[in-house]
Write a structure and sequence with these properties.
Layout (H helix, E strand, L loop, with lengths): L22 E8 L2 H12 L2 E4 L7 E6 L2 E8 L10 E6 L3 H10 L3 E8 L5 E6 L5 E6 L15 E8 L2 H12 L2 E3 L15 E6 L2 E8 L11 E7 L3 H10 L3 E9 L2 E7 L5 E7 L12
Parallel strand pairs: 1-4, 5-8, 9-12, 13-16
Antiparallel strand pairs: 1-5, 2-3, 3-4, 6-7, 7-8, 9-13, 10-11, 11-12, 14-15, 15-16
Amino acid sequence: MTQAPDPADRDGRASARHTPGTPCWVSLMVHDMTATQGFYGELFGWEFEPGPAQLGPYVRARLDGRQVAGIGLLPPDRHLPVAWTPYLASDDVDVTAETVRLCGGTVGVGPLDAGEVGRLVLGSDPSGAVFGVWQVPGERGGAAGGRPGAPLWNELRTFETANVAKFYASLFGYEERRPESGGAGAGEEGADRVTLCLDGRPVAGILGAGPALRHDGGPHWLTYFEVADTDAAVERLTGLGGRVVAPAHDTARGRTATVTDPEGARFAVLQRGGTGTDGRRAAG
């Protein structure tokens, strides 16, 4: 689960978990699965089990016995960027894939079956940011949301929000919530920010970073993982071979830092504790 749990539902069993458009999984494709498992196991306390055979060499990470993320092996002949990818839930991944194409996006992988865990597709939005779509068969139990080491929030970093928000709204019917002028979050990282909501519930965010985004590798989704202490997590991460991209700092959502693992996959860690328009549920 990758949505931010409602504070009243901190074990992650949110009713909107598999509503179409809700982030339902995150995965990472890497060159060295053994080293990557060691890194995240030490950083977040994850344990691992084999994943669906249809996905090739692949493991599912567990936290306190509950699924939290997936890690797979990149083919040696594919020189692809190592990056965390969020998956958005769909009732019909084939229809969603066709809508991606019709709305100006690209389908790169699938749709394909992943055995008992469902059907999936990998694509990119018109700006080039990669995301996945997953058709999950029924309710497969809760994910390990609402605790340190679990995915908490996903935010799309892109050039501007207006057009790309329309793209995602065409796929899943998101409602857009923008900060009031001068309100909490409006000037924190730039005013061009929108929260994507389903049935009034925040499920993901979009930040328009402008031309400066080119220095960060272009448009991409950023996954936030919850931690009990951001500064301690960053210290542990660097000791394990990770790197700090944006140092720990306080926001309306809590204390956060943007980092990478040893292979360069970018993610954020967040210690909840702030208040504000979006921070109440989105990541705080």
